[in-house]
Specification:
The structure is a homodimer. With about 150 residues, chain A is mostly helical. Chain A has a single domain, classed as Arc Repressor Mutant, subunit A (Orthogonal Bundle). Chain A has six helices and two strands; from the N terminus they run αααββααα. The first copy, chain A, has a two-stranded antiparallel ribbon. In chain A, a hairpin with a 5-residue loop joins strand 1 and strand 2. In chain A, helix 4 packs across helix 5 and helix 4 packs across helix 6. The first copy, chain A, is globular, with a radius of gyration of 20 Å. The termini of chain A are far apart. The N terminus of chain A is likely disordered. Chains A and B meet through helix 1, helix 2, helix 5 and helix 6 of A and helix 1, helix 2, helix 5 and helix 6 of B. The complex binds manganese (II) ion (4 copies). Chain A binds a DNA duplex (30 and 30 nucleotides) through helix 1 and helix 3.
DNA sequence: AACACTTCTTAGCCTAGGCTAACTTTCAGA
DNA sequence: TCTGAAAGTTAGCCTAGGCTAAGAAGTGTT
C-alpha cells in the first residue's frame, strides 16, 4: 500500500520484513546477554580471585542467590558452566570461549568509548549494555577508530 | 575479603556494589527498551502512513498480533498509548515525548555509527539495540564527535 | 443486506529472569 | 567436637514477552 509514484519520497520506514529482521536480531542479542555477562564475570573472578562462588555472582550481579542458582542452572543446561557446590563455578570449553569473546568485546567497547570522550566509569557502565548489541562490523569499526587514533600517520 | 595490602594490584574487578549498580542499570534499560521501540514505531507510522495499526506493528516488529495486543495493553496501562480498535493506535502526551526522545536518540546513534565507518543498513541494525544502552553522556560524546567531524576547525 | 476478508481479542501455554522465605549443607572457629 | 554463620538449594510466587489456535468484530464490495 506504499505510494511509489514519487521516486524518493519521505522513505523513513524500511520494508516490513527488513524492519522485523532488525528487531529479531535485537531480541536474539537480549537472550544471550545474560549468559555472556555471567561467563565473563565467572572468568574474571577465576582469574582475579582464584575462584568464582555463586554468592559472589549474587553480590556482583546485584541479584539474589536464588536467581543465581536458577541462572547457573540454565548455563549448565546449555553446556557453559560446571558447578562444584561450595567449591565454586567453572567454565566449560564453550563457556571459556564465550567468556573470552565477551571480555575482548567488552574491553574494546570500553576503550572505544573512552577514546570518544567518555570518562572511565561511564564507559564501563555503558559498555556493560552496549557490548551485547554491537555487531562484528561495528566492533571492527571501533577497532579501526582506535588504531587510527593511536597511529595518526 | 579483598586484599588491600598492595597499593595498585591487578584491580580489574570494581567494588561489588558498583559492579551491581552497572548491571542494575542495564536491566532497567532492558525493561524500557520495548516501550521505546513501540512508541517510536507508532510515531513513525503515524507520520509516514497517517495511521498506526496493530497489524502493522505486528509485521514490522516481527511478532504475532497476540503479542502486540498484550504489549499495547502494557503501554496503555503505563499511559503511553491509546487505542481505537480498527482505527489504530495513538500516543498520549507522555508517549509522544518518549517517542520523540527515542527517535532523536536513534537517529543520533545511526549518524554516529555511519560517521565511524558503518554502512547505513548495519548502522540501522545496530542502532536498534545500542540506542537503549547509551547513557546521556555517551550520546553527548557522540554528538560532539559528529559536530567536530562536520566542523573540523 | 450478505459475505468474505481483515483486524483484533481471548484463552491457554511457554521461558527467562526476577523475588522471598525456608530449608539443607558445609565450613571454621571456639 | 560442636555449633553458628555462610553458602547453596528448593518451593512458590511474579512479570515481561513470546507463541498458537480460535473466535469476535469491523469493513468493504458486490
Ligand atoms: Mn554486559
Ligand atoms: Mn561485559
Ligand atoms: Mn530499539
Ligand atoms: Mn529505535
Amino acid at each position: 500500500m506504499t505510494d511509489s509514484r514519487v521516486s524518493m519520497p519521505r522513505r523513513s520506514l524500511p520494508a516490513a520484513e527488513d524492519h522485523a529482521a532488525r528487531f529479531a536480531r535485537q531480541r536474539e542479542a537480549d537472550r544471550t546477554a545474560t549468559a555472556e555477562d555471567y561467563v565473563e564475570l565467572i572468568a574474571d573472578l577465576l582469574r582475579e580471585e582464584g575462584e568464582a562462588r555463586a554468592v559472589d555472582l549474587s553480590r556482583r550481579m546485584g541479584v539474589s542467590q536464588a536467581t543465581v542458582t536458577a541462572t547457573i542452572g540454565r548455563l549448565q543446561r546449555d553446556g557453559l558452566v560446571e558447578t562444584k557446590p561450595y567449591r565454586g563455578l567453572f567454565l566449560t570449553e564453550a563457556g571459556t570461549e564465550l567468556a573470552t569473546a565477551a571480555k575482548s568485546r567488552h574491553d574494546l567497547v570500553v576503550r572505544f568509548l573512552i577514546a570518544v570522550g567518555l570518562d572511565a566509569e561511564t564507559a564501563e557502565q555503558d559498555a556493560e549494555g552496549l557490548e551485547h548489541h554491537a555487531s562484528d562490523e561495528a566492533l571492527a569499526a571501533f577497532a579501526r577508530f582506535l588504531a587510527k587514533r593511536d597511529d595518526p600517520i
